[in-house]
Amino acid sequence: MITIFTTPSCSSCRKAKKWLDDHKVQYLEKNLFNQPITEADIDHMLENAENGFEDIISTRSKIFKEQSLDVEDMRISELKAFIIENPSVLKRPIMIEGDKLQVGYNDEEIRVFIPKRLRELIMCTDCQDGELCDYKSALKRYFEEIKSQQPQHTNTH
């Protein structure tokens, strides 16, 4: 399942959550101000970040400037402790699932989180000849499949 690290005032976070909701993708939201980030969370981010801390922290953030900090001069353990104490230095949103990491909201890149079945429909792996295979058609078919798999509720009196 996708974990998305957010803050309440982050418009990119709202866009990412809306995209996930619109595509019926389940996720676990961790509000950085209400749910403390852990060293394990940071390690998971770093495992998937191409450029290490540079990918996940904003050195332009107010606290970095106020304290005149230089990431290059800090030990990894110091940086992790600093992030845990000051989660607002993290870029947002940060979305992780397995080995997939996305920092910020990007309309194209977020598609890496599309569920496997929807990807199959988009790629027309099981389409009939002449069947319409555009993104909207695939999405509609995917939602119909999800709906048909949900248990039907009957009202008995």
Structural class: alpha+beta
Radius of gyration: 20 Å
Instruction: Tell me the overall shape.
Output: elongated
Classify the beta-strand content into a percent band. Answer: 5-15%
Total DSSP helices: 7
- Helix-residue proportion: 40-55%
**What is the arithmetic mean of pLDDT?**
85
- Spatially, the strands of the biggest sheet line up as 2-1-3-4
Profile the largest sheet.
Answer: 4 strands, mixed
Distance between the termini: 38 Å
Uncertain runs: none
Strand element count:
4
SSE topology string:
EHEHHHHEEHH
Structure overview:
The protein is 40% helix and 11% strand. By secondary structure, it is of the alpha+beta class. A four-stranded mixed beta sheet has the order 2-1-3-4, sandwiched between helices. A hairpin with a 2-residue loop joins strand 3 and strand 4. Helix 6 (116-122) packs across helix 7. It is elongated and about 60 Å long. The two termini are 38 Å apart. The mean pLDDT is 85.
In short:
The protein has 157 residues and is of the alpha+beta class. The chain contains seven helices and four strands, in the order E-H-E-H-H-H-H-E-E-H-H. Helix 1 links the parallel strand 1 (2-6) and strand 2.
Give the SSE layout:
Blueprint: E1 2-6, H1 11-22, E2 27-31, H2 39-48, H3 53-56, H4 62-66, H5 76-85, E3 94-97, E4 100-103, H6 116-122, H7 135-149
Parallel strand pairs: 1-2
Antiparallel strand pairs: 1-3, 3-4
Key attributes of the depicted protein:
157 residues; 7 helices; alpha+beta; four-stranded mixed β-sheet; single chain; elongated
